[in-house]
Amino acid sequence: ETGCDDPPRFVSMKPQGTLKPSYSPGEQIVYECRLGFQPVTPGQVLALVCQDNNTWSSLQEGCKKRRCPTLADPTNGQVILVNGSTAFGSEVHYVCNNGYYLLGTNISYCEVSSGTGVNWSDNPPTCEKIHHHHHH
Length: 136
Description:
By secondary structure, the protein is an all-beta fold. It is built from no helices and eleven strands. The strands form four sheets. A four-stranded antiparallel β-sheet has the order 6-7-9-10, with no helix packed on it. A three-stranded antiparallel β-sheet has the order 1-2-4, with no helix packed on it. The model has no long low-confidence stretch (mean pLDDT 94).
């Protein structure tokens, strides 16, 4: 029984197509970026080769998290990057300054949107002035 068994798993990339039960020396598996990830080096072929000693060649993670658009602070408020980043999987919180209340959602997530891109899960909220009613 010669050949390579299941290839290693990667966080950022997955095999193109369906895996075969086993691979003969010289055969290769090409990887593609998972949803929410993009190539570190565009155009680079990410592939594992089954070697003559029936082990897989080594392969580094070849994809990195996509970034969501930079968010502007709402007028009279601010955006807090919970994870310190706007990369795929990140979360942001919105807060309003004193004297203002938040209209809309106060949490947004960087998630997969159309196709392979990523975007924020919700539209930014607005900060509205609190009006105090005077009773006579």
